[in-house]
Amino acid sequence: MEHNVILKMRGISKTFPGVRALQNVDFTLRSGEIHALMGENGAGKSTLIKVLTGVHELSAGTVEMDGKKIVNHSPQDAQNNGISTVYQEVNLCPNLTVAENLFIGREPRKMGLIDWRTMNKKSAELLKSLDIAVPPTQMLEDCSIAIQQMIAIARAVDMECKVLILDEPTSSLDDDEVEKLFVLMRRLREKGVGIIFVTHFLEQVYAVCDRITVLRNGELVGEYETKDLPRVMLVAKMMGKDFDDLADIKSGHLEKKFEGAPVIEAEGLGHKGTIRPFNIAINKGEVIGLTGLLGSGRSELVRAIYGADKADSGKLKVNGKEVKINKPLDAMKLGMAYLPEDRKRDGIIADLSVRENIIIALQAKRGMFKLMSRKEMEEAADKYIKMLQIKTASRETPIKSLSGGNQQKVILGRWLLTEPEYLILDEPTRGIDIGTKTEIQKLVLDLADQGMAVTFISSEVEEMLRTCSRMAVLRDGKKVGELSGDELNQNTIMKTIAGGEENNE
Amino acid sequence: MKASNEKAVAANPMAKKKLTGTGFLLIVTIALFFVMYIAGMIVFADKGFANAQMFLNLFVSNAGLIVIACGLTIVMITGGIDISVGSVVALVCMTVADLMENKGANAYVALLMALVIGLLFGVVQGFLVSYLEIQPFIVTLAGMFFGRGMTAIVSTDMIAITNETFMKWAKFKINMPFGTVNRRGDFIAAYIYPTVVIAIIVLIIIAVLLKYSKFGRKLYAIGGNQQSAMMMGLNVKRTKFQAYILDGFLAGLGGFLFCLNSCAGFVEQAKGFEMDAISASVIGGTLLSGGVGTPIGTLFGVLIKGTITSLITTQGTLSSWWVRITLSALLCFFIVLQSVIGTLKKKK
Amino acid sequence: MSKTSEKDTSFIKKLTGNRLFLPIVCLVVVLLINLIKTPTFFAISINNGVLYGYIIDVINRASELVILAVGMTLVTAASGGQDISVGAVMAVAGAVCCQILSGGEVSVNEFANPLVLAIVVALIVAGICGAFNGLLVSYFNIQPMVATLILYTAGRGIAQLVTGGQITYVRVGTYQAIGGYIGGSPVSTPIFLAIITVVVVYLVLKHTALGLYIECVGINGSASRLVGLNSKMIKFLTYVICGVLAGIAGIAASGRIYSADANNIGLNLEMDAILAVALGGNALGGGKFSLMGSVIGAYTIQALTTTLYAMNVSADQLPVYKAIVVIVIVVLQSPVFQKFLAERKAKKAVAVEGGQK
After folding, report:
1. N or C: which end of chain A has fewer CB within 10 A?
2. Cβ proximity of C115 and C178 under 8 Å
3. Residue B304 domain-assigned?
């Protein structure tokens, strides 16, 4: 049985300063199989991939290819060892032609010079053999993302990789394109390539994968044959049992009746290219969840409300009055607060202290000429460090030296300090330890009890079920439904997310 | 001049239709060159602007610039920049002049020295940029001041070159089969100097290198997306290093060609030359953000700079400062255009 | 024993960790070298009611540089790039000021227009130059150095055009006082201008949120926008401020020579200003900044310049040494180099540990 194992990873651990991303993880890949790597956000999938491809050095453990121990120090090493990766963000060069992207670094040459004609001819053959319909001389930037994705795969395949890693390649593809990709994947499987498939889409896993490895919180949950693992079980494995003690957080918080005009009311609000016009109403004291797969438009919806992407259609009413929001500051002045999805990129101001990070939003709201006094800043900082139990050496410590969870709390404190009427939390618990997750969830419910309107976005359905009284579902940049009351259960949500009939089990 | 500027603006609406083509900027440039030159031929017909020699002079007086702008195109394709080239030219000229006039070296040694200086600049700056990952601007800004200061250390006086071999190279006329007929009916052949031949050869070699060598394509890949280039297994650091070395070498060679034209070395020489080279490259369609650019485009950039100079000198009353101001304005126009096109593309 | 050494290292760490440590050490080193070479370096004498001495000379000559360094610090912090047009903008401001005062004549002995008008217009023009740079950098997203390269080359040409290609002389006592001495003051006017500039900018940073905003924008533009800051506007503003300050420096420099010399006013000062910022312990990649660091840096550079002059290095040759200093500083600052050092240190530590075992 084990004779066709091509990749064997044993006891893999990886620590980043302050974070243990992987702990003693095993992973086995056989030739001619499609192997799904599953786990929620922060489970360690991408770290495992990065360790395997040499982007990160591993802290402990061994990697064997075909029975030989290998160490990859760079993606190049990995490639030389027969491991190729295709990422969600296509790693090709937009300013080169399709053919060049396929052959760069190994161009066919004649008398020392690149033989463009042979290169184009070979590319055409390769593309044809994989059924990719694109002329080799086309500029890559003029190709659709799906085609770019396939070109990346074609490149990997032509370099005779034994292990092909597909890291969420389908996130930006439509159904037809996904189907084409699957055809390609199955063809490669027949050729004996071992494929590691990282995805969030359950259907896709059951459509093409032979085996599933599940990670949770940086640890291995187990390896299963797809046919032996029912969907519900997979979800359970991914979510884990750790949450049981939280299951009844919500019970203390009674159902509320909402009166008066909603805090936020959007009519036909939209932003070209990211979110199609939608209607939504959010009441005082309500936690409304936005769910949908990554890239479904759940972040884009709140960005349109907040003015992070200026809405280009529709109307927005705040407390019943129509308003125009051109930039985030306008939204802040109307009592909104937005905790962004990407903490590193959009949240923390890394080199500044915890104090400065906490007061910056309030300061911006007050304006440049009304500098808060040092005392006022310190009091505000201390208040939230205490209230949110932020673990920091002092309020003057740079935020970058805090752990992810504490950074997130600082950002949360930043927004609570502005005393918002409407709080948007986009993936506030991503990459955060369990304890902090619970704290944040409790806090959200408390805030709602105090009358704050909250929008909560998370990839973890369980978490949403615990905190939200109503949920809006998004798919393909469109709001497709709203669920409340009894409809708020895993099954209905999954069905609505997936849409159509394919989801009937 | 004004007319041509207006033409360029008038050509702008076309931009909306052809935005996707990366060659759009190049087309604007080539059109701009012909419009300017033809306008000059019409307006200054009486001052001999239409003569064949006038056209060849564009090459004669800019041979060094062609070579150096090619070097800049190479580093700019990788997304870098080099503003030290003007100082390198001054240092090369001064060293060459000093070696031959004061140290009794022959012209060949001087030539070798010029190339070595260029290479040294390339190696040091390239190392700092590619391996230590310091902003190319800061590195080459320091290089610019270093070069200018070194020139003054070699000599603060102007040195005129009298070396026989050198002057033979400099004044060797290559006659063309065409030319003009003077008032008495004698045929005067148009001519060029060897510098032009060398510049054209370099241009062709670089063009082939960029289009048909692995190294050349790697430069484009790095400029297109450095991260991707690394992920595709290209050695980004080494390639960048090589690009700066080549750029340095070309600066040295270009400096020598420049010297053959000026036949002197002095501290203030070639001041602002880096601007000419960058402008030529950018006007010729090289993107400041990297990934796009061709030596042929750069050639047209140089020709436009040459034409502006000719127009202003032929006109006679305008101060020579107008050359630099016009060129700066043109550079500004093109980088804003690039920025706008880039933004539109992203939105799409 | 280990405890005391621990304490010692922590004290040293605190000292060396201070942001002003590097700039002050540099200044002290340069001053010490001077003191050794010229024992009378710190001697100050009074001649005709005016202070004289090497040190006074350094402080006096550093004035323009200090003013430029302040602007450069803000630009660097907000945009992560430098404004290399400051020297040229100085020349433009000087030219405009002199031209208005002379009313178009090449040399005048009395003002053709009021001094205040000339200064205000010159500063406005300098501000416009800064605004032009700011526009390109913040609204067209052009790299700061490329954007400012345009004025760096065109600026002196524009100044030439303003003065009609001549050096305009304004031989009026009041104007000379800007570069010389006002009334019975024992120190020169540029020193006051520098001090006033630093104090004003310091007070503005202390009493408004501008400093915090600049740091935010420089560290993380995208996050700054989401907390309600207008990143583009703030970047733009720093360039305008930098332009105006270059204007002040330009007028001071022109006052010293009571003329507008388009080719020489502010020559090579952009490099000195960048050097002052780097020497002041500020990252050239933007973010947190220290105004005082840059000011100390500026005085250090001038002391260095004076030292080199004293060692018979000509003005033309100075840039060589400054270029080397810049490279040394940026190499020391570069993350790659620091990582390399850290790795070596770690290896050494491991070796020591191994040895002990």
Report:
1. N
2. no
3. yes
Is the separation of the CB atoms in A477 and A276 below 8 Å? yes
Q: How far is C174 from chain B (nearest CA, A)?
A: 31
Phi then psi dihedrals of residue B163, to 5 deg: -45, 130
C324 in a structural domain: no
Residue C241 lies in a domain: yes
Helices B85-101 and B236-262: angle between axes, nearest 10 degrees: 50
Residue B26 vs residues B287, B295, C139: alpha-carbon distances, Å? 11, 11, 24
* Residue C10, domain member (yes or no): no
Q: Does B231 touch chain A (CB under 8 A)?
A: yes
User: Which residue of A75, A104, A139 is in closest CB contact with B221?
Assistant: A104
Q: Which residues of chain C lie closer than 8 angstroms to A332, CB-CB? A: 227-228
Instruction: Reply yes or no on domain A2-239 having CATH 3.30.420.10.
Output: no
Read off the DSSP letter of residue A371: P
**Model ipTM value:** 0.85
A contact residues 443-472, partner C, Cβ 8 Å cutoff: none
**Chain A environment of B214 (Cβ under 8 Å):** 105, 107, 109, 114
Chain C stretch 234-293, residues whose beta carbon is closer than 8 A to a beta carbon of chain B: 268, 271, 274, 284-285
The pTM is what?
A: 0.84
Q: Which range of residues forms the domain containing residue C257?
A: 20-318
Q: Which among C353, C67, C16 has a CA at the least distance from the CA of C200?
A: C67
Within the 299-328 window of chain C, which residues sit less than 8 Å (CB to CB) from chain B? 314, 316-324, 326-327
For an interface test with A, which of C217, C220, C227 has the most A Cβ atoms less than 10 Å from its Cβ?
Answer: C227
Instruction: Decide if B253 is inside a domain.
Output: yes
How many domains does chain B fold into? Answer: 1
A-B contacts at Cβ under 8 angstroms: 70
Q: How many helices (H) and strands (E) does chain B have?
A: 16, 4
C-alpha–C-alpha distance, residues B274 and B268, integer Å: 13
Whether residue B8 is contained in a domain is answered as: no
Total domain count for chain C? 1
- pLDDT (tens digit, 0 to 9) for every residue of chain C, 357 residues total? 444 444 555 666 666 667 778 788 888 888 888 888 878 878 888 888 888 888 888 999 999 999 999 999 999 999 999 999 999 999 999 999 999 999 888 888 888 999 999 999 999 999 999 999 999 999 998 989 889 989 998 999 999 999 888 888 999 888 989 888 887 788 899 999 999 999 999 999 999 999 999 999 999 999 999 999 999 999 999 999 999 999 999 999 999 999 998 888 988 899 899 999 988 888 888 889 999 999 999 999 999 888 888 888 888 888 898 899 889 888 888 888 888 888 888 777 766 655 554
List subunits contacting chain B, requiring 3 or more Cβ pairs under 8 Å.
Answer: A, C
Asked if C249 and C70 touch (Cβ cutoff 8 Å), the reply is no
Nearest-angstrom CA–CA distance, C201 and C206: 8
Which residue shows structure tokens 């080099």? B82
CB A287 within 8 A of CB A469: yes
**At the top level of CATH, which class does the domain A244-498 belong to?**
alpha beta
CATH number at residue B218: 1.10.3470
Kindly give the pairing relationship between strand A83-86 and strand B159-160: unpaired
Residues from chain A that touch B228, judged by Cβ atoms under 8 A, are 90-93
Domain ranges for chain A, please list them.
Answer: 2-239, 244-498
Nearest CA in chain A to B287: A95
CA B299 from centroid of its chain's CA atoms? 8
Residue C339 within a domain: no
- Chain B hits for C269, Cβ within 8 Å: none
A328: which chain C residues are within 8 Å (Cβ-Cβ)? 225-228
Burial (Cβ within 10 Å: 0-12, 13-18, ≥19) of residue A253 = middle
